[in-house]
Known about the structure:
Helices cover 33% and strands 13% of the residues. The chain has 297 residues and is α+β, with helices and mostly antiparallel strands. Among the domains are: 61-139, Phosphatidylinositol 3-kinase Catalytic Subunit, Chain A, domain 1 (Ubiquitin-like (UB roll), Roll), CATH 3.10.20.90; 240-296. The longest helix has 18 residues, at 2-19. It is elongated and about 140 Å long. It comes from Favolaschia claudopus. It is found in: Cytoplasm, Cytosol.
Amino acid sequence: MAEQAEVAFLRVYLNTLSSQPLTYNDNYQQPPQNSLKKVPVLQISLPPPPVRAAAAAAADTASTLTLTFKSLKPAASFSLSAIHPADSILSLKQRIAAEPNGPPVSAQRLLFKGKALADAKLVKEYPNLLSGETVNLVLKPTTTTDAAPAMDNNNSNTLPAPKPTLSIGDRPVVSAAEAAAHPRRHTRIPSVVLSPSPSHDNAAGSPAASVTDITLTLDNIDAEPGLAAAELSTYHEKLAEPEFWEALLVFLNSSFPAPADAARAWEDFLRASKNTLTASEVARIRDRCGVSGMAGT
């Protein structure tokens, strides 16, 4: 019985010890026999990098391209050699800009067989672009700043600046003389009427104050009224005839191969002439020609 009691005590004691967490000191080191063995790393010697052969260098030189870039307006031609297939289209534009009288990069557009060349793509991405080919160079118009005012050599004073042009919003106000020279420009001059509202004191019982209309016109004082009235009337009469627009549509259909292009050109002409046409005249023109515009009008 005594031996069984000791065995039971040892079992309970061991179970109690195994349930307690183990705490190691800061300088604890695991015995070497319990550590994992390190896998040895073999030192493999690497061969030296290969030397580029002369044949490979000659083949690389032979793979370069020579292209010619031609522009029609204005007439210009640029020839670039030693173009690597890994060069980008943007780098070609930069080389063209570095040539004598070369256009800036922003004004250049490269076309090859009717297809535009993207700046971000490489030359080798266009397999049909071979050495000796000619690439079309289209120059986009660039904006130029106004020139500085001229100086008078005698008294070193600036010449008088040009007379400013009055405008309302985005529509310039022109005189009758300018309207005669350019009959398609906007000639209606708006007027502004200022009507002061009566004060609160007058509304209380005193007689209402008289309202005065002040009309402000933006006519040019240098223009003579009625100078181009006859010319504008004959121009408007011809422009308001539906037969004129019907003949214009027939001419555009014979000039453009695609009917959609002819209708677009006809619409552009009509929109440019709407400043001198009324809504009823535009409706008669569209009914006669059978061309509907925005919202079916």
